[in-house]
Amino acid sequence: MDTLITESSSEQIMRSITLTQFFIAMLSSFTLNLILAKFYSSLNTGYTSSTPVLKTIVLIGLIVTLIMVIIGSNIARAFALVGAMSIVRFRNPLKDPKDLTYIFASIAIGMACGTFFYEYAVIFLIFFLFANYTLKNLSFMKKSENFRVIKVRLNQSNEKDLITLFKKSSIDFKLINSSNFIENDQNILDQVFELRFENEDDFINFKNSIHNEKIYEINIYLGEPESGI
Q1: SS3 assignment, position 49
Q2: What is the Cα 9 distance to its own chain's centre?
Q3: Which end of the chain is more exposed for a tag (fewer CB within 10 A), N or C?
């Protein structure tokens, strides 16, 4: 170990690659991560698919590429990088865990390009995009998409009518929260339901029918995985 440290400390810092090689590495990283960001944007239609996430996917890949080029096979630089990065703290949590997988994919592509394994970066990107597309279209992955969370405000006397409407619309429901208060000498209920339905048409029919009921207010929250709810 002492010999390794001595050799590392006495080694002169020399550039082992040309500017042309560095330019090709950065261009490859930018192109592949741009494709990754485009695929992320096309598959994610929720509000978490924001411009900052797309920019992060591309830029973090470029940063990692430069880091890998600088480190090369120099152990001393690698330890210096670990010490420098250990002081960095990220306080902004991601709204969707799926975003983290794309960021890790961007890091992997940046590392591959920074070490000049371009073919591995391309093969990884193809497999990663194929896996995402396959998982998105598998039937058991779509089970969580067919639900919504709604909040309704109605007169207590109309509660049974709402339950009847749920059953009529072929929607499974679960009462999550309920509170009541007095307004204009009437007992008003504030209720939150989780709704599950077979297909989107069932929910659309429910929305069209609910306007005919004596409900003062209804708020519909997206329940899709992309929404973060």
Answers
A1: coil
A2: 43
A3: N
